[in-house]
Amino acid sequence: MLVANIVALTERYGHTHTALQRAALRLMAERGFDEVTVAEIAAAAGVTEMTAFRHFAVKEDLIVEDLHDPDIAEAIRAQPRDLPALARAARGLTAAWAALDEPAVDGTRDRVRLIALSPRLRARAAIASESSERAIAEVLAEGGVKPLVARIAAAACIAALTAALYDWASGPTAGALGPRVLDALSVLEGSA
Questions:
Q1: What is the pLDDT of residue 35?
Q2: Taking the model in full, what pTM does it have?
Q3: Inter-residue contact 128 to 108 (CB < 8 Å)
Q4: Which domains does the chain have, with CATH numbers?
Q5: Predicted pLDDT at 103
Q6: Contact (CB, 8 A) for 95 and 68
Q7: 69-97 burial, b for 16+ CB within 10 Å, e for fewer?
Q8: Looking at residue 86, what is its pLDDT?
Q9: What are the helix (H) ranges across the chain?
Q10: Given phi > 0 = left and psi -120 to 50 = alpha, else beta, which region is 80?
C-alpha cells in the first residue's frame, strides 16, 4: 500500500509539473513573459499558486530548465583524453546531443524565443548555463586539463550552443534544431 501511494504521488507530481510548464509556455507565448502572473499560470494548470511555487521557486524556472548536465558530463568523460580540451568538450556534447530525441519544434522554439526576448529569462538561462559550464569544466579538469583551459573550453561550448539556440528560435522557419547544434559544435572542433 505504501509503495502504491508513493507511486501515485510521484505520478501526480510529474503531471502537475508538466501542466504548469505547458500552461506557462502557452500563456507567455501569447502575451509575453512579464504579462503573465504565476497565479494565472496556476489557474490554467488547475492548481493553486502555492502548488506552483512548490514546483518552481521563481516564475523564470517555469521556462528555464536544464536536466542534461549528468548526460553531458558522461559523454565528455567518454572522449579520448589526448584530445585538446575544446575538441574533447565539443565531441562530448555532440555525442550527448546524438543520444537525445530531437525536441518538439514548436514548444522548444517558443521556449527559446521567450528566453531570447526577455532579459529576466536570459539572466536565468545564464545561471542555468553556469551549471552546465561547471560540469563540463570539472570533467575536463578530471582528465588532466588545466582549470583555466577547462573553464575556457566549457564557456566556448556554452556560448556556441546558446548562439545556435537563439539563431534557431529567431529564424523564419521552424526546421529541426539538431543541425544548428551540430553546426555550432563543428565550429568548435574546427571542422566547419
A1: 95
A2: 0.78
A3: no
A4: 2-62 (1.10.10.60), 69-189 (1.10.357.10)
A5: 64
A6: no
A7: bebbbebbeebeeebebbbbbbbbbbbbb
A8: 95
A9: 2-31, 38-45, 49-55, 69-77, 85-98, 105-117, 119-142, 147-170, 178-189
A10: beta
